[in-house]
Amino acid sequence: MYDLVIIGAGPAGLTAGIYAGRAGLNTIILDAGQSGGTVNTAPLIENYPGIDKISGTGLMKSMTEQTRQYVEIKEFTKVESIDSSSANSFEVKTNNGNINTRYIILATGTQYKTLAVEGVDEFSGRGVSYCAVCDGTFFIDQEVIVVGGGNSAATEALYLNRIGVKCSIVHRRDKLRCDAKLVSDIKDAGIKIYWNSELKSVKGNGRVEEAIIYNNKTNNETCIKVNGVFIAIGYNPNNSLAKKINIKCDDSGYIYTDKNMKTSINGIYAAGNVTGGVKQIIVSAGQGAQAATEIQNLLL
What we know:
The two termini are 17 Å apart. The protein folds into 2 domains: 2-111 and 235-299, FAD/NAD(P)-binding domain (3-Layer(bba) Sandwich); 114-231, 3-Layer(bba) Sandwich (FAD/NAD(P)-binding domain). The protein is built from 7 helices and 17 strands. Strands 1, 2, 3, 4, 5, 6 and 17 form a 7-stranded mixed β-sheet that branches. The protein has a 5-stranded parallel β-sheet with strand order 8-15-9-10-11, with helices on one face. The protein has a 3-stranded antiparallel β-sheet with strand order 12-13-14, with no helix packed on it. β9 (143-147), α4 and β10 (166-170) form a beta-alpha-beta unit. By secondary structure, it is of the alpha/beta class. It has helices at residues 11-22, 56-67, 132-135, 151-162, 180-189, 240-244, 281-299, and strands spanning 2-7, 27-30, 72-74, 79-83, 90-94, 97-106, 110-112, 128-129, 143-147, 166-170, 192-194, 197-204, 208-215, 221-225, 228-231, 235-237, 268-270.
């Protein structure tokens, strides 16, 4: 019997593991993929306190190694369901067997949003991408567009520009919705922006060759010759486990919690991007620490 099972090995789950392990709680972290979550795809992180600049993979590798000093992390272990029928414990059912625990932290994060646009699914992996750090080097000296206007889109565009990709931004509004520093960096880099524009279709022969964009002010369409389309428009919460056991979520699917990260079911907590709010690494880490500390206090 574990004291705590943490589902998800992103910043929230790993931080919760550090706090729980240091408190002496018998804890295990499970993740369906590789430790680090979507932060692994961040090309450059410049706003994590105490670290000037670091890649997402670099930060998460360091955090994972630190966490392993205190708790076990089981990667590529998918949680299929949670049985909450017992009064004082839960059974976590995975593809590698079942685990009994007294408490659970859901740190399942989010996944990339996509677009219901002609050609996006067809050319996924053949020019359509959601990760600049994963695929950017394939497009050096080639033309691409980044669709979006928030921090994610701005960061992706700056990274692509930095490694030698000829990058433009397609944004459906008339100004970017990202940090002022990123706006300044984009201007300094000379990155072109198609304002008030939306992606209408992606075309090609085997691979992406052009993108059709639509100006929502003039109603004009423009064909852009590109080799790649990077979509950076936000995320959807990974809430399937929560929904299976009727944990309360908001209208967008993010898990409701109280100030101590407790969900609507006793014994289950949630932390990180799956709870909505400000989607930043430091916020997720803080929530993971809060949830683990509250569980520690309950077990004292």
